[in-house]
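Review form for a predicted model. The reviewer records the input and the model, then writes brief findings.
Reviewer: anonymous (R2)
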Amino acid sequence: MQEKSVVTSTVETAAGVFAPGHLGELTQFVDFALMDAVLEERGRREKRLRLLSSRVVVYFVLALALFERHSYRMVWSKLTAALTPLALVRPSVSSLTQARRRVGAAPLRGLFETLAGPVARPGQDGSFYRGLRTVAVDGTLLHTPDDETLTWRYPKRAGESLEFG
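Model under review:
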């Protein structure tokens, strides 16, 4: 009988591609416990052991959002860059696509609903002004009526030949 086939109270973690923490920086913000809870809640946990587990697929999709101009293979390489000493399987693009379809959007929606919200707490410097939460909207244009009651405060923008309200 092999030594590891005996039931013990010792907990061993998986090695290689299934090792905890192998997904790098993303796991510092979205930890495994949260990811597993969201997958369980949304009914997206895998029923059998796969090379591309549901957890890995969701981290992959998050990495796709971070590296939006890169291919699937490049994003996978970035996601597993710290694991170069390990003999990792490199999934094909079609495997990654099928895994994304299998997992679906529900876990990402669940993560968003869990994590989205203001970061600053009441009383934190710069987070409130006169009782209202401060918000920075960068690169956004707000269209308002071209009315004298507004243009005295918010002047029109003028180009070379046109004036914009």
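Findings: The two ends are 82 Å apart (CA to CA).
Further findings: The longest strand covers residues 128-129.
Recommendation: see findings above.
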